[in-house]
Amino acid sequence: NPEDYKLLNAQLLELDKESQMGPAACRANPASCVTMFVADGSGRCLDDQGALVNDKSSCDALRVVGLHVQRAENSLCLDTWSDEDRDTFGFYGCHDGDNQKFELPGGQGTSRICTQSEPEVCFAMKPYPAL
After folding, report:
1. What's the whole-number mean pLDDT along residues 79-96?
2. Which of 20-24, 46-50, 59-63 has the lowest mean pLDDT?
3. What per-residue confidence (pLDDT) applies to 13?
4. DSSP letter string, the chain
5. pTM to 2 decimals?
6. Cα–Cα distance between 130 and 84 in angstroms, integer?
7. Considering just the CA atoms, what is the radius of gyration of the chain in Å?
8. For a Cys-Cys bond, which of 15, 25, 76, 123 suits 36, CB 3.0-4.6 Å?
9. Cα–Cα dist 2/51, whole Å
10. 25-28 long-range contacts, Cβ below 8 Å, gap at least 24?
11. Distance between the two ends of the chain, CA-based, in angstroms?
């Protein structure tokens, strides 16, 4: 039935628009979502696995919640994996350990966030999605 296909196409188009706007948390409160670029001049951002990547289309939607950085998609916390490698990050269940705590050196409203654990790694926060 042509009417069924017309309705289905409209529904698929709406779903596609929503998916391009990011996770539900970002659609509900767009200003709460950011992308994070490591502040080393490389232009790399955090992807959905916590890897630092050059492909801006792979930058994940993140939210700063208290002292934590969480994936907007599932609220997992950004974790330094407790090693000395400045490029090693991943997402893990939140446990309030030092390897999951971040600080805003300039206070609330700043666009820079840094790990509390050593070695210190800082990120520039930019509005999601990254362009």
Report:
1. 92
2. 20-24
3. 62
4. -HHHHHHHHHHHHHHHHHHHT-SHHHHH-GGG-EEEEETTTT--EE-TTS-EES-GGGPPPEEEETTEEEETTT-PEEE-TTSS-TT--EEE-----GGG-EE-TT-TT-SEEEESSSSP-EEEEEESSP-
5. 0.82
6. 28
7. 17
8. 123
9. 45
10. 25/61, 25/63, 25/72, 25/73, 26/61, 26/72, 26/128
11. 41
The pLDDT of residue 107 is 74
Q: Rounded to a whole number, what is the largest CA-CA distance in the chain?
A: 63
What's at 58, amino acid-wise?
Answer: S
Whether the Cβ atoms of residue 35 and residue 106 lie closer than 8 Å to each other: no
- Whether residue 119 is preceded by a cis peptide bond, meaning omega within 30 degrees of 0, is yes
Structure tokens at 92: 């893990």
